[in-house]
Amino acid sequence: VPAGIAAAAAAFLAWLSNWPSMADFFIAAEGEIKKVRWSTRKEIMASTTIVVIVVFVFSVLLFAADFFFAWLFMDTLKIY
C-alpha cells in the first residue's frame, strides 16, 4: 500500500509539473532557494545556546514567582 501511495503521488506530481504555470513556479522557486543565505553551524550553535539560556532563566523566574505566591497565599494569608 505505501508503495502504491508513493507511486500515485509521484505520478500526480509529474502530471502537475507539466502544466506551464506550475513548471514556471517550480523553476522560480528553485531560483529563490539558491538565493537563500543559510546559517553557518557557528551561528546556529550560538542562537541555540541563547534560546536554551533564556528558557532556563524564565523557568527559574517562573518557579520563583510560583513559590512566592504559594507561600504568600498558604502561609501568610492562610488562604487554601
What does it look like?
With 80 residues, this protein is mainly α. It has 2 domains: 1-36; 37-80. It contains 3 helices and no strands. Helix content is 85%, strand content 0%. The mean pLDDT is 91. The protein has helices at residues 2-17, 20-35, 41-76.
Q: Give the C-alpha Rg.
A: 27 Å
Largest sheet: none
Can you tell me the residue ranges where pLDDT is under 50 for at least 5 consecutive residues?
none
Estimate what percentage of residues fall within beta strands: under 5%
If you average the pLDDT, what whole number results?
Answer: 91
Number of strands: 0
| Percent in helix | over 70%
End-to-end gap: 58 Å
Helix-and-strand structural type: mainly alpha
> Which geometry do the CA atoms define?
elongated
What is the number of helices? 3
Set down the secondary structure blueprint:
Elements: H1 2-17, H2 20-35, H3 41-76
Main traits of this protein?
single chain, 80 residues, mainly alpha, 85% helix
